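Next comes this protein.

***
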Amino acid sequence: MSLTYTAGSLVAARGREWVVLPESAPDMLVLRPLGGSEDDIAAVFPSFEEVRPAEFAAPSPDDLGDQRAAGLLRTALRIGFRSGAGPFRSLASIAVEPRAYQLVPLLMALRQRTVRLLISDDVGIGKTVEAGLIAKELLAQGEATRLAVLCSPALAEQWQGELREKFGIDAELVLASTVSRLERNLELGQSLFDRHPFTIISTDFIKSTRHREDFVKHCPDLVIVDEAHTCVAADDPAQGGASSATNQLRYELLRKVSADDDRHLLLLTATPHSGKESAFRNLLGLVRPELATLDLETPAGRAKLAEHFVARKRADVRDYLTKEDGLADDSLAERSAFPSDRWTKDEPYKLTPAYRALLDDAIAYAADRVSAAGEQGKREARIAWWSVIALLRSMVSSPAAAAQTLKTRSESATARTAHEADVLGAPVAADSAENDRHEGMDVAPGAAESEDAGARLLELAGRAEELMGPAGDAKLKALTKHLKDLIGQGYNPIVFCRYIPTADYLAQQLDGKLGKRTRIAAVTGTLSPQQRLERIEQLAAEEGGDPSVRRMLIATDCLSEGVNLQHHFDAVVHYDLAWNPTRHDQREGRVDRYGQKRDQVRVITMYGEDNGIDGKVLEVLFKKHRQIKKDLGISVSVPDETASGVTDAVVEWLLLHGRQGSQESLFEMDAHQESFDRIEREWTSAAEREKTSRSKYAQRAIHPEEVAREVAAVRAALGGAEEVREFTLEALRDLDALVRDPRDGSGDFTAQVGGTPAGLRDALAATLGNRLVEEDREIPFRTTPAIGRGEAALVRTDPAIGAVASYVLDSALDAKAMGPRPARRCGVVTTDAVSVRTTLLLVRYRFHLTLPSRSGERQVVAEDARLLAYEGLPQRARWLDDDTAAALLGARATANTHELAARKSITRALEGLPGLADHLTEYGTRLAAELDASHRRVRKANEEIVRGLKVVPQEPADVLGVYVYVPPAAPAASTVSGAEA
C-alpha cells in the first residue's frame, strides 16, 4: 500500500531527496529536488518507482569548514530560492534589487482587487521598474495571466529588454515592422494577442481600426501604458491640433480597455497634469471613472485619489526610510544616486560675416514670400508660413541643414486647405512637448513650394554649402571649444541637434578634432530604435577598459525620450536651441537620472547672439521656464500654445524688421506686449496648478514605516546584491578559478574556470557556452543585468550564478564529494567576537501556503533559511535574537582551534540537536504566524484577497549547518586546518 505524502514533506526517490508539491495526487507525486529550482520539477509514480519518506541527515563532525563556511552555505541556499514565503512572490525571481521607494506602488497595487494605478513619479526615478515589479508579482500570484505594454515604437525594444533582463518576462514586439511575420504564424481565426501572452505594442500601430478592435476584443488582463499623457486630450479641441486628434484616438482605445472592471491597468507618466485640468481629469477617469468627477478639494476626495495615484519628486526619495520619515533610526535608510544638481551655462556665439549675409538674404526672401502668399489666399499663406519657419530653423542649425532645406520641397506644399497645411507643417517645424512622435521629426524640412527649387533658393543653398567648416561656421567652431573643455575635465558629452543633416555634418567635422582618445558616434532617425541602442553600446565598448578614453555622442531628438544614457554620458550640449524648453528637459533627463555616477551633470546651451531668433526664444521661454523651476522646485511643461505663440511672434517680427530690428524692439511693441503678458499669466497659472497638484495629491497612501517593515523582511529572506557578488567571488576562488578583480569601483570581475571541478565546468558550459569554458577564456561577471553572450550578471537569477550556488550547496551536503568544497555543514571558530561558547544553526523551513486569488486558491510550497543561535550548552540554551545570530557570520577567527577541542565541541553540539527540536518547531510556528500576518498586512485593504489565507509550517525543519564559536583560550599545540582563519 502506497503512503500519502503531504505538500512540503521530504521523500527519497531516484537516488536523491525531493520536496512534495501541492499538485501531487495519491497515484502521482509532483516533486522538486531539495534545494533545486522550478526547472527541475519531475513527476514520479509510486506504483512503478520506489518512493520512501526521507529524513534530512545531520551534519558530520568529521567534515569541518572554516569561518566562512556558514555564510557561503547560507547564500548558496538563498540563491536557490525562486519564490519566497512572504507576501511578495516574485522578488526572489527578478534580476534587479528594487529601491525601497520603488516598492510603494507595489504595496498600493496589492491592496486592490483589480489594480488601477497612475504612477507619475519624476523623470529618472524608475517608473519602468515600478511597473515591472507589479506586473511580475501579479503574474506570479496568478492574478494576471497575460500582459500588454503600450508604448511609443521608439521605446518598444527598450521595454522588451527591461522586461526580459530584469523580470524574466519574454515579450513579443507588435510593431508595424513585425506584425506581418507574427500574423503568418497564426492559426485560422486566432488573434496574435491570444497567441502571444506577453506583448509590447506600438501605440501608433494599435490606432488603426482593424488592430484596435482586435486588441480590445482579445485584450490581456494586465495592461501597462507608457507616457500615458499622450493618450488623453483636453476637452477643448482647439488645443493641440493634429496632436489632439492623435491623442483622441488613443484615448478612445484606452476607454474601451479600461471599461472592463476586472482588467488591471497601470498608467505611467511624469507629466500627468501639465496645466490642463480637463486632460488630467480624463486621465484619472481611465483609472477609475469616479475619479474624473471627484472633488479633490476635500480631504475625502484626496484620500480616495491617493489609493490610485503616486507622484514623487527626486527630493522625496533621495533619502528614504530615515528618521525624518518617522522611523526610529536610519538602519534601513537608502540614499539614491541621483545627481545633486545640473551645472547649466548659456554659451553665445556670433555668426561670421558671410553667414550673417546669407541669413539676411534668407530673411529677405522669407519676408517677400510671406507677403506675396498673403495676397494669394489663406492656404497659400499657411504653406508659405511653414516653409519660412522651416527655412529659418534650418538656417540657424547648420549650413548642412540649410542647404538640404533650401533644395527640398516643403511638406505643407501638398496641402489642399489652410488647416491641412497647419497639420502637415506644425509637427515638422515645432518642438511640441505633448507630441510623442519623434520618428521622422529630425528630417530637415523643406522650404521650396514646388518640386523644383527656384533659382533664388538654389543660390542660397550653394552659398550655405560653401560655409561648411569652422572657417565659415562660427557655431561649429564654438562647439569644438566647448567639447574640448568638457572632455579635458573628464566628461563624456552628448550633443543634441534638431536635424539629421546637422548631426551628420558635426560627426564629419569633429572627427579627429577632439583628441586621439576621444571616440565619436552619431545617432539619428535614419537608424532603427534597436540600431540606435547598438550604436551607443558600440561607442561605450570602444574604450576597451581604458579610463582615459572619452566618449562623445551626437544625437537628434530621436533619443530625447525614453532611452537611458546615464551609464555612458554625463554632460549635455544643446547645439540647436529647441523652441520649447520641455524638449531640453527631456534631453537632459536621459543623462540626469538614477544611476548617474556624477554628482553634477553639466549642461551647455548654445545660442546665436545675432541670428535674430535664439536670443529672444532664450530670454522669453527658457529663462521663464528656469525661474518657475527655481521658484516652485518642479519643472513645468511649457504648453504648446504658449511656446508657439512666442516663436510665431519672433518670426513675424523678424520678417517685418529684419535680424537687427528683432533684437532691439520685439518686446517693446504694444501689440506683442499684451500677447506676452497673457502667455506669462497662463504659464504661471499652469505652474501654480502643477505645484498645487503635486503637494495636494502627494503619495500618502503608504507610510514609510509600512515600507520599512516589508523591506526588512525581504532583505532578511533574500539578502542583497552585494551578498551575491561576494559569494560568487569567494566561491570561485575556493573552487580554483583564476579570478581577476580590478577593484575599479564597478564591482565587475572576470574568472577563468578551467581549473574548477568538472561538475561546475559542465554546469557553466550549459549556460555560458561550451567553447568559452573548454578554451578557458575569461568570463566577465558584471553588476548590471544587461549582459552579452558569454557574460554573467551578478544577480541571484543569473543561470551562471545559480550553477555556482548549486555546486557549493551540493558539495556541502555531500561529504564524499571530490575536489574543493567551499562550504561545509560544520565548523568550529575561535574568535573574540564571543565571550561564551555560542552555537549558530542554519535552518531551512518549508511552508505550505494557501493563497487566495481572483482565479481561485493556489497551493504553494515555499522555503526560508534562518539563522538561530544560542549561548551555552544545548540542554541549557540561552537563545539570541535574530540580529545577533546573523552578526556571527562576520566573526573572524582570532586564534587557531585545538583539534581535539574542535571535535569535542562540534560533537556535543550535534548530540544536542534532538533537545533543540521543540524550540526549532516553536520558531517555525512563530515564523509561519509572522508570514501570515505579513500577507494580511500587505493586503489589508482587501478582505476578499486574504480570506482563506493559510501558512502551515512543514515539520521537522532541516538543520543544514552547525557552527560553534568559542572565545580564545591558551595557544594549542595541534590545530585543525579547516577551522583556521
User: Anything to note?
Assistant: Residues 237-242, 661-667, 972-981 have pLDDT under 50 and may be disordered. The first strand starts at residue 10 and ends at 13. The chain is about 40% helix and 15% strand.
